Amino acid sequence: MQRLIDGYRTFRETAWPERRALFERLAAQGQRPRALVIACSDSRVDPTLVFGAGPGELFVIRNVANLVPPFAPDAAYHGTSAALEFGVRALEVADIVVMGHAMCGGVHALLNGTPNPSFHFVGGWIEMARDVSKRILACTPIEDAQPICERECVKLSLANLMTFPWVKDRVRDGSLTLHGTFFDIRTGLLERLDADGTFRPA
Question: Which of 66, 111, 155, 183 lies 20 to 30 Å from 192 when distance is taken between CA atoms?
């Protein structure tokens, strides 16, 4: 914790004076992010750093394996869906970016099982991508499956986004665009998903 406090003090001494006017404007005018990014919780993957964004520019949702669940308006707790709804319906973002990444622990758990069988939530969460892993493992050796599955989970999230009626309606009328990306933490390279379903360097 002390390291975090030290970091805060550095922020107050250096970054805050330089950006005080920006934060005051954001406080007074509210947030108007240009895009919503759905990324993994992995501590090595920071969407604002990768995309060179500053405060107020991105509305970021992070969870294990950057997964978007299907639309399910029931009484269960839906953190990702609630944040998605706020970003789309309240903030009216123009773009949604799903950002997968290399060496994803969630995808590794999907392919190999959770790191601890006593975990309560990880297994159930990644189960939504079970069909993806089954399809890949049916034709790919498990030692080669991870990078393929990581990219296919991005495609799954994009497909699930279209099950939300207010996402689907906005995509159809052109007010919202969906994007798939993949970041390799080993090389710093970003790939974009093209219309033909292939990931290519950005």
Answer: 111
Parse the chain into domains and list their residue ranges.
1-30, 31-201
Distance CA 39, CA 33 (A): 16
Please tell me the class of the 31-201 domain. Answer: alpha beta
pLDDT tens-digit series, residues 65-122: 999 999 999 989 999 999 999 999 999 999 999 999 999 999 999 999 988 888 999 9
Positions marked active-site: 40, 42, 44, 101, 104
Q: Residue 39: which H helix or E strand, with range?
A: strand 35-40
Residue 79 CB contacts under 8 Å (≥ 6 apart), including other chains: 63
- Tell me the pLDDT tens digit for each residue of 150-180: 999 999 999 999 999 999 999 999 999 999 9
Closest alpha carbon to 98 in 189, 26, 183: 183
